Amino acid sequence: MTNPKQDPFVYEEDRYEGMLEQAVRFLDRLSNLVILAETNLRTKAINGRNVVVRANGLQEVSVDMQKLVKETKDWHVVIETMKQGKDVHIKENCKHNKLEIVAGSAHEFGQYLINKSDAKFCEGYPVSEGVNGNRAGKAYMEKVNGK
Fold first, then answer.
1. Number of other CB atoms surrounding residue 136 within 10 Å
2. Are 114 and 88 in contact (CB under 8 A)?
3. Which of 1, 30, 46, 124 has the greatest CB tally within 10 Å of its CB?
4. Of 111, 108, 106, which Cα lies nearest the Cα of 88?
């Protein structure tokens, strides 16, 4: 059996497989929260048989949505920072959020996203084609979003 560290292709393939598994688990958690919120909204908050059932259903939807926001807050901040072409590595932009996603349950997937950005202090890069800052991160987000 080949040592994965000795065969870079096998090592990279295993690394990406693990990263994709983390991304799928993350997406599974998020989709479950969305479906739970939608189900509670439809069955209780909107179609509940009386005011009390509807009010309690709305409270449950609020709790579900708060969980969803908590799961995605750091990811959202990092992605928006990259879209704007700002440095994800400095405190003023989103360093805390970046550290949260690379330390979370989807840490390899988070690190993959961060690696698509330019290095620290990229906002000091000279203006090139009218853009300075995190050019690689902004270009990656535009590619992913089809812009």
1. 16
2. yes
3. 30
4. 111
Q: In terms of DSSP H, where are the helices of the chain? A: 8-40, 51-83, 95-103, 107-115, 135-144
- Decide if 123 contacts 133 (C-beta within 8 A): yes
CA-closest candidate to residue 97, choices 120, 113, 76: 76
Whether residue 33 contacts residue 71, with contact meaning beta carbons closer than 8 Å, is answered with: yes
**Residue range 35-79, pLDDT digits in tens:** 999 999 999 999 999 999 999 999 999 999 999 999 999 999 999
> In DSSP terms, which residues pair with 128 in a beta bridge?
131
pLDDT tens figures, 107-123: 999 999 999 998 877 76
